Amino acid sequence: MSPANDEATEVLEDRSVASLLERGRTLSTPLLKQAVARLAAPMDAVAAYHFGWIDADGRPAHGDGGKAVRPALALLSAEAAGAAPEVGVPGAVAVELVHNFSLLHDDLMDGDEQRRHRDTVWKVHGPAQAILVGDALFALANEVLLELGTVEGARALRRLTVAARKLIDGQAQDISYEHRDRVTVEECLEMEGNKTGALLACAVSVGAVLGGADDTVADALEDYGHHLGLAFQAVDDLLGIWGEPATTGKQTWSDLRQRKKSLPVVAALAAGGEASEELARLLAADAEETENGDLDEAEFAHRAALIEKAGGREWTSEEARRQHATAIEALHRVDMPEQVRRNLVALADFVVVREK
Known about the structure:
Layout: H1 3-36, H2 43-51, H3 69-80, H4 89-110, E1 114-115, E2 118-119, H5 121-125, H6 127-146, H7 151-177, H8 185-210, H9 215-242, H10 245-248, H11 254-257, H12 263-271, H13 274-288, H14 297-309, H15 312-331, H16 338-353
Antiparallel strand pairs: 1-2
Helix pairs in contact: 1-3, 1-4, 1-16, 2-6, 3-4, 3-8, 3-16, 4-6, 4-7, 4-8, 7-8, 8-9, 9-15, 9-16, 12-13, 12-14, 12-15, 13-14, 15-16
Keywords: Magnesium, Metal-binding, Transferase
Protein name: Polyprenyl synthetase family protein
Organism: Streptomyces thermolineatus
C-alpha cells in the first residue's frame, strides 16, 4: 500500500471513531440534561457548568464535555447484544454520571484548578458545591437505572454499584500512595484497574445487560473494558508527565506536581540503576517533609528526565500496548456483528494513540 493510501485509511478510521464518540454524546446528552435538571438550585447550575453547558456566569456555553468514550462504549455494548444502540442510553448516562461524580471529587482532592481548559468546579463554586454536586450525580445514576423498572435495569445497577465501589477504592489507594516513597508495579496496576478500569468495564457491559445479554457475554465485554481501562490509564499517566498543556488542559508535569505514584514513576523506581536510585532519593526526601513546597520547573523537568532515563516512559508505553492487545482478545469470546467488533477495536486503538 502506498503512503497516500495509508494516510487515507488513517483519516477514515479517525472519522469512524469521531462518529462513534459523537453518537454517544448526542444520544446520551438529552437524558443527561433531564437528570441534572432534577437537582435543586444551585446544584443544577453547578453541574451544568461542570458539563460545559454554561459558563461561570450562567450563560449558555459549548465547553469541552470530555471524550465521551464511556457513552460510546455503552451504545456499542447494546449493539454487541443484538439490541438497538438506544437501548444502551440509560446505561451510558448512568456511567457518565458516576464518572463525573468522581471527577468533581478528584479535582478537589488533588487540588486541580483546571479541567478541559476551564476552571474546575471547586475553584469557581467552592469545595462544598463540588462535594454536594458530586454526591448528587452519584444518586442520579442510581435513579436513571432504577426507573427503568426492569430486571435488566436492576442487573445493570448491580454492575454499576460494584464498579463505583471499585472506583472509590482506587481513589483511596491513589491518595495513600502519594505518601509512600515506594509502590510496586503490581500495586499501581491494581489501583489503576480499580480507578479507571472498573468504570470502563461497566460501560462496555451495561448496554449489553440492558439489551438482554447473559452474564457470560457481559463478563467478556467487561474484561475488554477492564484491560482497555488499564491501557487508557497508562496513556493518561504518560500525558500526566509529558503531555502538552495546550492539548491536555492541565499544567506541565501535572502528576509530578501532585507526587502521584503513576506507572512511569513506579516502573522507573523498580528498574534499578543510577537514574532510578536518584529518583528514589528525591521522592524519599519529599515523603519526609511534612509540607511539600512548590518545586521549580527545572526540578520537575529533571525528575521527568530521570523517569525516562530509568525506562519508566518506555515501559508504560509498552504496558499500554499489552493491555490493548489483551482487551482485543477478550472480544473473541463474544459472538457479535462484525461491524460492532470493528468499532470496538477502533475505539481501543483510539484510546492508545490519543494525545489528551
